[in-house]
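pls ignore typos typing on phone
pimeloyl-AMP + seq
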Amino acid sequence: METALYSVRMRATLQGRHLAGAERLVAGSSAGSVAVALVQRAMNCTCGPADEIHCSLEQVDPDTVRCLRLPDLHTYRVEDWREGRRAARSLLVRAGVRDDIAAEALDLLGEGAAEGGGVMRGAVLMDALTGERLEADRSRGVRVSRMDLSAEFRPELARLLDAAGLAHHRVMEALVLAGKVLHAPGLVAELCWSDDPAYTTGYVAAPHGGYQRISALKPSGDPHGGRVFFVNRGTMPMAELVDYLERAPVLFNAVGRISPPVQWVDSDD
Ligand code: WAQ
Ligand code: MG
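k done
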């Protein structure tokens, strides 16, 4: 690759409370318009408008970019958020998270994982076997950035998601974020649902399971949400893992399999 790339990051707050954030990795020629679009999104936020918006652009050496393939996408339909959380718990256990730790993590996101019960700007980093929280700052958490779809691949993925009835921008963004997270060494699983009160679908991502959507992980109207990255602490120093998540540039240029939705069935395996 010969063109310069820019990491574009936006975060917006209202009275100090996290409202929205976004991260892109784009060619210099489109960095300006992408930055404007992210700032506009923060201004139009349904729970806003924000009273403080930070947008930063940083050049990234194109020779350091890894090109990767997106995970397979699955969708499980559940009756309600309670069944959704049971589904998430079993998918986390399947991925290698201890059962009681999975349950604790679900409660933690449900209550608000930041100090004082608010929504964190980034993710909780949790030991998959002890439940210990490893992130340095419990309000900021670990913020994954420097990942995106390649410019050539973006329209193709948009078409495929659209055909699958998944045109919402949240799906594409979460798929890209989970794609980067799943390539982190020592990463066992990711649990996520949005802090947007109107968006109840969430997911469990895992290296073998892929991006596993669950139609409801919280009741409609609930403003809590967040992410938990479960890690196997023996695999690599945590500082290196965090450095990969926050700094290593990754572009996706290939799609995984997109499966049609299926009903979740509880099982005891
Ligand atoms: N790095 C780490 N954590 C993040 C990041 C990031 N770049 N961005 C957001 N978070 C955390 C933060 O705590 C947010 O409060 C929380 O995740 C939720 O962020 O397939 O929209 O942007 O239908 O609200 C998932 C399902 C949607 C999509 C997730 O998350 C689908 C979503 P949001
Ligand atoms: Mg949000």
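The CA atoms of residues 70 and 255 lie 5 Å apart. The helical segments are 28-43, 81-95, 99-111, 154-163, 169-182, 238-247. more later
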